[in-house]
Fold:
Amino acid sequence: MSGLVLKLSPKERVLVNGAVIENGDRRSRLSIVTPNANILRLRDAIHPEQANTPVRRVCYALQLILTGDSVPEEASLPILRRIEELSRILTDTDSRRHLTLATEAILAGRHYQGLKALRTLLPREDRLLAACPQ
Structure:
């Protein structure tokens, strides 16, 4: 059996296809076997006020698709444009690889994988922004 395996801490919450699910008092493991299910760990969620950098804004836009607050067909093109803008700034090989993975995932309708690829860029963006004088 393949699919996504979620390992949840006690009382951890996860959003699955728009429904918030809270784990019980013990660690547990869930296997999501439905392909293309929209999954978001609420501990990883970006709140609107945190979407204040270029990468965080794109991640937040993808997150809105996963939560059902945006229509994928309408939101994907603006997200792809933002990723293109990021590719002009983040020109190193590793960043480009993650941006390419995100683009391919979004084009294939795999928004969770796109979000996952972009989230790897958050620490890099934080370092770059910290190095720039305000």
Notes: The CA atoms of residues 108 and 114 lie 10 Å apart. The mean pLDDT is 90. The longest strand covers residues 4-8.
